[in-house]
Amino acid sequence: xxxxxxxxxxxxxxxxxxxxxxxxxxxxxxxxxxxxxxxxxxxxxxxxxxxxxxxxxxxxxxxxxxxxxxxxxxxxxxxxxxxxxxxxxxxxxxxxxxxxxxxxxxxxxxxxxxxxxxxxxxxxxxxxxxxxxxxxxxxxxxxxxxxxxxxxxxxxxxxxxxxxxxxxxxxxxxxxxxxx
Length: 180
What we know:
The chain is an alpha+beta fold. It contains four helices and seven strands, in the order βααβββαβαββ. It has one domain: Aminopeptidase (3-Layer(aba) Sandwich), CATH 3.40.630.30. The protein is globular. It comes from Zygosaccharomyces mellis.
């Protein structure tokens, strides 16, 4: 049975496994500083998946790492920075559950939108995010170090997300209004 837990920042073995999972799956090499930037500032936005019945029930088999902060002083923006699931566990809905948990937390914390980038060639990731309601915003050419292109995706959570930033200073939004 797969269980999901928030990151325990004190557990160094979990940090090492997160790094191992992400390094194996993502095309970008991240330095220790990138991991620490996300995990030290927003530990509540990192979730881990564990196989309780596996050989190592305390070793994460999946993770999502996120952040949230004010964007241009006018809206709260969540950001999914990293998502990885060990190859033997793919296709079981683990990534979707991890992303759902992070979206729910960011929405509860007042995010107006959630952004991410994914490789144009990563059809599995694009299907996952688009089936969850993310929209393609733009294509970014040679975005990654390997010169691969990326799509920037957005998930609007509130009406505020659907209004250009320049017009938001005079716009009052009911925080309970959610865009479906």
